[in-house]
């Protein structure tokens, strides 16, 4: 018998809907595991979570805990906790009153035990000493921390979290995602966590289940999911931005494609079978900082229009990476720059690469050049995944 949560062939279909919101999902969350359900808006994540909670009737399939079906068990008797986007705190209770509401009745009635347990829970979520605060005075992040403390108070055997951080701004979300993981791990809580944000899923979960159109596409630990997406759809959803067919051995292909296949094969990061596909994420190409960009043809060089001095001294039509043996040896992969942008402290260069398409290459901080220039590129095999054909 398996322990923890088992979801077997679950179907959720809303009245009048043409397609099922959840369409035959099988999933297991063993005790102590945090599993993230990740997928685009409308893919059925919340419907599945609500079906597990008992808030949505099953059209088909079964939900079980430790091998025993809970399909007929009402929501409040399943022993599952719930935390939503808006923690739904009670406005008329202070912080301690909100947290204490989640405690088992016996603890709630014992004043000393209640005080101790509320203090423990507030410590756990990083809000020690806030017992007497009016919840109306809390920030959005603090409110969600209190809601988490309240949800953990009864020690639920499963905690169901539906986009608990999505109302917060990005910086706060990133920090709270890490804190949330720490709290779930420290308390050994089994959890099912719904999110549409890849970074959040990867930060919080032991395994990530990717959903699309009501179905599960892949379930894997974050690193494995990232390195080996099961399909192009999964890879696209994770943020892979370009896809290259692996050519037959000996086929004549653009230098960039050959460099990709060689680099990935050498790194042993991903299988590169003929007929397979290489998926590239931002950074699969890196601007070679030792070479000088070749400027765009004079009539298309925006630097001329702007009266800016060209960033390169390589003659128009010159060999990219020229000026020495080093450039000649590794300057055979190149691309035409479309834009240069700074993103989270990194320089990203949108570049058209022959045979590959438009990708986001990385460059050293502060590096820049005019659009239209041709730059030499190197391959970073760690940003390339192999997909089955
Ligand atoms: N109560 C409902 N009645 C009818 N259709 C619904 C209901 N709730 C959800 N749906 C539909 O079911 C599908 C799945 O919705 P669901 O909310 O589960 O997706 P989701 O992945 O959680 O999306 P989001 O991230 O936007 O919340 C959608 O097409 C949605 O319109």
UniProtKB/TrEMBL annotation:
SUPFAM superfamilies, per database record: P-loop containing nucleoside triphosphate hydrolases
One GO MF term: ATP hydrolysis activity
Protein EC: 7.6.2.9
InterPro entries named among the record's database cross-references: AAA+_ATPase, ABC_SmlMolc_Importer, ABC_transporter-like_ATP-bd, ABC_transporter-like_CS, P-loop_NTPase
SMART domains cross-referenced by the UniProt entry: AAA (SM00382)
Domain of life: Bacteria
Coiled coil: none
ABC transporter domain location: 5-238
Keyword vocabulary terms for this entry: ATP-binding, Nucleotide-binding, Transport
PANTHER family: SPERMIDINE/PUTRESCINE IMPORT ATP-BINDING PROTEIN POTA, SPERMIDINE_PUTRESCINE IMPORT ATP-BINDING PROTEIN POTA
Protein's recorded name: ABC-type quaternary amine transporter
Organism: Cellulomonas flavigena (strain ATCC 482 / DSM 20109 / BCRC 11376 / JCM 18109 / NBRC 3775 / NCIMB 8073 / NRS 134)
């Amino acid at each position: 018998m398996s322990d923890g949560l088992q979801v077997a062939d679950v179907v959720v279909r809303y009245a009048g809907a043409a397609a099922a919101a959840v369409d035959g999902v099988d999933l297991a969350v063993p005790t102590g595991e945090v599993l993230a359900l990740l997928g685009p808006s409308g893919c059925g994540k919340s419907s599945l979570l609500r079906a597990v909670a008992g808030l949505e009737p099953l059209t088909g399939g079964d939900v079980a805990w430790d091998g025993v079906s809970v399909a007929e068990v009402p929501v409040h008797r399943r022993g599952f906790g719930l935390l939503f986007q808006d923690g739904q705190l009670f406005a008329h209770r202070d912080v301690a009153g909100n947290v204490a509401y989640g405690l088992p009745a016996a603890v709630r009635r014992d004043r000393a035990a209640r005080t101790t347990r509320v203090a423990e829970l507030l410590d756990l979520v990083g809000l020690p000493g806030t017992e007497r605060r009016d919840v109306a005075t809390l920030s959005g992040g603090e409110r969600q921390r209190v809601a988490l403390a309240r949800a953990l108070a009864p020690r639920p055997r499963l905690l169901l979290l539906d986009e608990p951080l999505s109302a917060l701004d990005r910086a706060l979300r990133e920090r709270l995602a890490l804190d949330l993981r720490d709290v779930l791990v420290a308390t050994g809580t089994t959890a099912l966590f719904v999110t549409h944000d890849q970074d959040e899923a990867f930060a919080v979960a032991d395994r990530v289940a990717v959903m699309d159109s009501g179905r599960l596409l892949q379930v894997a630990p974050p690193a494995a999911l990232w390195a080996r997406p099961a399909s192009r759809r999964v890879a696209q959803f994770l943020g892979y931005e370009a896809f290259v067919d692996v050519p037959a051995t000996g086929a004549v292909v653009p230098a960039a494609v050959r460099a990709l296949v060689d680099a990935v094969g050498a790194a042993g990061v991903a299988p590169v079978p003929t007929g397979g596909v290489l998926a590239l994420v931002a950074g699969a190409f890196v601007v070679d900082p030792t070479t000088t960009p070749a400027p765009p043809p004079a009539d298309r060089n925006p630097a001329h229009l702007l009266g800016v001095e060209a960033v390169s001294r390589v003659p128009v039509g010159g060999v990219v990476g020229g000026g020495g043996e080093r450039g000649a040896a590794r300057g055979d992969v190149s691309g035409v720059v479309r834009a240069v942008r700074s993103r989270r402290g990194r320089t990203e260069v949108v570049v058209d690469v022959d045979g590959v398409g438009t990708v986001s290459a990385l460059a050293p901080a502060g590096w820049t050049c005019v659009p239209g220039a041709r730059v030499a590129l190197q391959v970073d095999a760690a940003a390339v995944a192999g997909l089955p054909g």
